[in-house]
Amino acid sequence: MSTAPTGHPSLAELQEIERRYLMRTYRRAPVEFVRGEGALLWDAEGREYLDFLAGISVCSVGHCHPAVVEAVREQAGRLMHVSNLFYTEPMLRLAERLSRSSLGGRAFFSNSGAEANECAIKVARKHAHRRGVEAPEIVSFERDFHGRTYGALAATPKLAANEALGPMLPGFRSVPFDDAAALREAVGPNTAAVLIEPIQGEAGVYPVGEEALLAAREACDAVGALLIFDEIQTGVGRTGSLWAYEQTPVRPDVLTTAKALGGGLPIGACVTSPQAGDVLERGDHGSTFAGGPVASAAALAVLDLVDDAALLRGVREKGAALREALLGLEGVREVRGRGLMLGVGLDASIDATAIGVDLLERGLIVNVPEPGTLRLLPPLTVDSDQIERAVALIGESLVSFQPA
Amino acid sequence: MSSEKLPRQGRRPSSVAEAAERLAAIVEAAERAASSVIDDAEEEARRRLDEADARADRLVAARLRTLADELDPPAGDGEPPRLRRIDRNDAAPHDAGPRGLAPRRSGSAGARLLATQMAVSGSSREEIEQRLRSGFDIEDTNEILDAILGPED
Questions:
Q1: Could you read off the pLDDT of A18-69 as tens digits, one per residue?
Q2: What is the Cα A278 distance to its own chain's centre?
Q3: DSSP string, A14-76
Q4: How close is the nearest chain B Cα to the Cα of A348, in Å?
Q5: Cβ pair A246:B68 closer than 8 A
Q6: Which of A245, A318, B59, B100 has the most crowded CB, counting CB atoms within 10 A?
């Protein structure tokens, strides 16, 4: 039965509108979703899907969590926007909460993860100029993904190689992933920051090893550079702690967050240590919409849910159970990641893209970030029955694609 | 306090039955009021217990964060950015790992910071112990764990 309102356009009609009026920057799966609840989604035909992508780790408390919906509804009915020229309580409460739950410094709000990284890049460059560095440089890992705005793009080597979008912002370099020796060598007097994802997400879920993390911290400390963790995908409970750095042997000077922070509304933040909190001053940065009351109210509701020892323990336990079950499937070579951020490495003979398409047809939403890998990012609130169902569907799909 | 209206004072009862009925109504209203007071008291007690729990959690978190800061002290005003170095002398005798990288730091500040941060984030003793063993090759994790979580009972 269709769950779409009467008179709702067909998928073909929507695709025709897309063809004529949308820039062709995405390849979309041929499904229109119209409703979500928890880990479930329904398309316009009324078909139910189990969502193990959660809007690329955005809907971490599940679709339309009642507490988030209520917070948004209440705030939207009272005050939606006044700009950053005035005070609004939700933003200030959120800044306090983010600071106290992480690095203890200051926050700058943005509307996306890429923008949060833009802020971090500005912090790093200005911090370097204060050290007397004339041509500051930011070092990241190959295959890191930090966003698509020009600063973030320059720190995303794979995308920055697209010459059609050039010239790129200067002052960025990359080293092979997880290569501690290369990182040490790359960091020098001109280094403003090392900007890394503690677990590469878009690349296919690859955690940075402890050696490389310690090397990054040590190298930054040696020259006075900042260590910046892009926690846009790993943060807000995804890995089983509120921030992924909490499960590493280092503390960054700056972290960036977005995606899950707003529970579905667009909000990001760049959060600093106390030392890096005073680098940006009036006029250095700004954003009209950022930290708006509705998105901030949503983020506070999300943090109320996620910053909870029992929920985070559940993420670690469910993640471990999911990993274990996946490793038992025919065709699964390895499972990478932490908590409920998992990359499932498939046998070389299996076409992961075909598996992703097949799973969608079976009613399970996953993502294929690279050939040979399925990425699973279920809502943190997913239950064990849903995990079992997902594993069964993946198992059935893998069996159906095994070479004869 | 119940919002039930009590019978108005000063009216003379027309009969014994009516008086009994009014008395019953008064008793019933009083019982409802008492019940409401008990509910309020229980609610207040629950709220205070929740607050105490939350306060205790905050104290533990603050204590653990202080420990983390001691391992990774913030610089004072006007000082250069943090220049904490992980002491090479802290390193394990030798475990170069892949690609001949820096030695792993058994018992190092990194291991202690990992344990402290995991404790702050709510990880169990067992979970922290497992990470210390797998990430740092630490055989006896008790020294670190006891320092952060207190000795096991």
A1: 999 999 999 999 999 999 999 999 999 999 999 999 999 999 999 999 999 9
A2: 26
A3: HHHHHHHHS-S-----S--EEEEEBTEEEETT--EEEESSHHHHT-TT-BT-HHHHHHHHHHH
A4: 24
A5: no
A6: A245
- pLDDT by residue (tens digit) across A242-282? 999 999 999 999 999 999 999 999 999 999 999 999 999 99
How far is it, in rounded angstroms, from Cα A88 to Cα A36? 30
CB contact under 8 A, B81 and A215: no
Residues of A in contact with B74 (CB under 8 A): 104, 273-275
As a whole number, the mean pLDDT across chain A is 96
Q: Mean pLDDT over all residues of chain B? A: 65
User: Which SS3 state, helix, strand or coil, does residue A91 take?
Assistant: helix
- Consecutive H or E run containing A341: strand A341-346
Question: How would residue A404 be classed by pLDDT, with cut points 50, 70 and 90?
Answer: low
Inter-chain CB proximity A247 and B100 less than 8 Å: no
Distance of residue A74 Cα from the nearest chain B Cα, in angstroms? 24
Count CB atoms within 10 A of the CB of residue A84: 15
Residue ranges of E strands in A113-177: 137-141, 172-175
Residues of chain A with C-beta less than 8 angstroms from the C-beta of B120: 246
Q: How many CB atoms lie within 10 A of CB B152?
A: 8
Inspect the interface and report whether the beta carbons of A249 and B114 lie closer than 8 Å: yes
Tokens 């740092």 map to which residue? B136
* Tally of residues, chain B: 153
Distance from CA of B51 to the nearest CA of A (A): 15
